[in-house]
Specification:
This protein is mainly alpha-helical. 69% of the residues lie in helices and 6% in strands. It is elongated and about 65 Å long.
Length: 127
Amino acid sequence: MLNANGVRRSIVGPWCKSCGHCLAAGGKSDVRVSPPSELLATLSAELQVLKDDFRDLKEVPSESLGISVIAFTVIAVIGIGMLMWRRVHYGGELGGPKFARYRDAGFLTFLWIAFLVVSIRASMSTK
């Protein structure tokens, strides 16, 4: 559906509603064309709010990031190795005997928890 200016309302309308650049007329929202200075002022204000929000974020020490990447790589290789082993022995990554399914699901869960523990400990010890 097009508005009076020929702008497709379904594309521009939702963006305008979120920015407050719409005029309601009879229950329908029509896009009004704002002057460039007004759009730039709105964009500048939004960027300032984003900048202020990012200033409050915590910094991650680079040492803990390196340890987390190494831990992720090692644990991922172990997990992929286990999936390859399952493919050879059970014909696929899923299925197999009931005990093997639960054992391997527990092992993958253990790998995930091990990664979390290593990453959190590395982050806490570098402070």
